[in-house]
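Before the break, one more example. Copy the sequence into your notebook; we will annotate it together after we see the structure.
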Amino acid sequence: MARHDLEDRLIRFGSTSCRLGERLPRTPLGQHVAIQLARSSTSTFANYGEVQSAESRRDFIHKCGICLKELRETRTWLKFVREMNLTSPELVDPALRECDELLAILATSIKTARRNGADGAKRMIIDH
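Here is what the structure looks like once it is written out:
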């Protein structure tokens, strides 16, 4: 996967999560969850922009770790939405699946960068 493909995928995921948040009930809880979903899911692609300009392997790993953190937070909010029945599972489950796939991609990028040493970060930026 090219790096811009992953960036585009993260942007689509953020958009999907925001649209899902707009479908939540207009209650204090629904609005709170919608805002949290918007924050964590959009932070992921914004931080991925920083990954693309990593200055070292360590920097690359650190910035990818921030993306992972935000994706994990988004995943937790999506699971909460499903648990609380704030919207239909048909809307939540595809977002959860995509989140899991994105988590796997970024986790693999970090593992590869660690395994490949100092040049691994630059290769990962080009490859992903």
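Residues 3-127 form a domain with the de novo design (two linked rop proteins) fold (CATH 1.20.1440.60). Residues 89-116 form the longest helix (28 residues). Try to locate both features in your own notes.
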